[in-house]
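Hi team,

Below is the intake form for STAS domain-containing protein from Rangifer tarandus platyrhynchus. Please confirm the fields before the structure is written into the shared record.

FORM ID: S-0412
PROTEIN: STAS domain-containing protein
ORGANISM: Rangifer tarandus platyrhynchus
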Amino acid sequence: MTGAERKKKSILWSKMHVPDCEDFKQWCRRRLPILDWATHYSLKENLLPDTVSGIMLAVQQVAQGLAFAVLSSVHPVFGLYGSLFPAIIYAIFGMGRHVATGTFALTSLISANAVERLVPLSSQNLTTHSNTSVLGLSDFEMQRISVAAAVSFLGGVIQAAMFVLQLGSATFLITEPVVSAMTTGAATHVVTSQAKYLLGMKMPYISGPLGFFYIYAYIFKNIKSVRLEALLLSLLSIVVLVLVKELNEQFKRKIKIVLPVDLVLIIAACFTCYCTNMENTYGLEVVGHIPKGIPPPRAPPMNILSAVITEAFGVALVGYVASLALAQGSAKKFRYSVDDNQELLAHGLSNVIASFFFCIPSAAAMGRTAGLYGTGAKTQVACLISCIFVLIVIYAIGPLLYWLPMCVLASIIVVGLKGMLIQFRDLKKYWNVDKIDWGIWVSTYLFTVCFAANIGLLFGVVCTVAIVIGRFPRAKTLSTKNMKEMEFKMKTEMDDETLQQVKIISINNPLVFLNAKKFHTDIMNIIQKENTGNQPLDEIRKHEQSTLLTSLSGICNEEATQPCLSPKCSLILDCSGLTFSDYSGVSMLVEVYMDCKNKSVDVSLVHCTASLIKAMKYCGNLDSEKPIFFESVSAAISNMHLNKNLSILSDPSEV
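The structure came back. Fields below:
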């Protein structure tokens, strides 16, 4: 080896960064978010609300766990396990502090297809009750949960593989209208699946394309077999649940602890059914025997993984998309960040590890997450506390649920889906903001109802991407300079020494879901950017090619060194080149306005079309006290000039 080669090799080794202890700590904090928030946990401020929220959440976890296990075509006790282990694992690896992970209606519905296909009800007579079986359950029940656990295992492996491939960043392709339509359609499927319990009917398992319509056709054909007692009890339960939950919502600010109506209803229904012997007297179907304890872990059967790969992909995609939407919503509401890829890892491990403990596929549920909001939960400690109460049910209270009528359990599930079902109201919003998004919502919903949630999700994504590509102007699709920025100072007549920094950004391309997130990031970077004037011109040019915003801050390098966070900073968005925008783009414009307002940055929009102004006013609560839409840049600057002079005149200290 020559001296030059040795020198070159030594330079390469010197550039390599050897991991140290600090790097390992940062990696642990990044991959184990519990280490980040647990070290700053305040017992005095957070423990009480987390405890109250945990108790309320435990009631929902137990009720939904039993029901979603039945929905997944397995014994109800496995739903209790599915409410325990995934919640613990997500609390360690997940970043959503207000996300309630556990059994989920959509993933249960998908896994039921595999269970009914591989272990149909007709095979029950071919299996015998075995005393050596787990928890004394029949071999038939164990075969069914083995299939559901295999779906959970393979679905988690797919999510973990997506994490390794860093596919979480691809979620920007899944827009809000698609998620809303898919979850609403899937909720419609779940309500339909509960119809046989609400009506007290015996019905064979019906699935596949157009299975939704076949179920209602069977119901109307056999309408005489409806049990009046079950129907009346279902209606009474639904009315009580809806009424009390609405009252809780109305008076939650006046009362510190809301009434756990789900728990009260379960206790009352079990007691009434036991005292009146409804199972034998009226023929009502009840939950049945709930064995105590947790069985030792067992690996899912690997020989059937190839047979459940379709359902596993559905569980992985649908569960992750629905959970990520809830995590991002809670992060936006409570102002913290969520890593899309870390969420893939958290849900992947929640499914893989839990599958060894006889758990059905899991995900975050909208109803339970909304319950955490309403009860004032602060962190994932609320979910961990709920796991303690779920454990108490598993080891002590479970057998007492024998008398719980299935129609009451179905009523709890239907009311719990209210948050998804009322998303029909979004249709009005999409119609006023972007009628194409309205059409995507309707078509995605119809595909979900007619086929399945994963089919509807795939159709919605493909349809959205195809329409956006068709709407983009072909001449500008490959343009690297999408936006231009200009910056200058404006003197005021009242105070010559006071200079106001104004940034003018011209948007020259459509703003849609493909670039909306990057638009927001780059706008915030331009506002908060410091020391730009100290960068060499070559670095600025390189930055121009790699970002959505093209910064021409060389026009005023002296001012660029100051952070744009003072009240003297203003932002003008020139929308003359914004040819069209979808719902995601309009929402992001409103979010940029609100974020800038919170940073004391005045924002003005110029050259906006009438449809964009209407959409933004409908989509967000904009400031109505002062105008933000102007016909030209000069009009916006004149308005800033006038407001500055008025503020100086109105300040006695300045006068």
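SUMMARY LINE: Strands lie at 101-103, 362-364, 483-491, 499-507, 549-550, 569-574, 602-606, 629-630.

Thanks, M.
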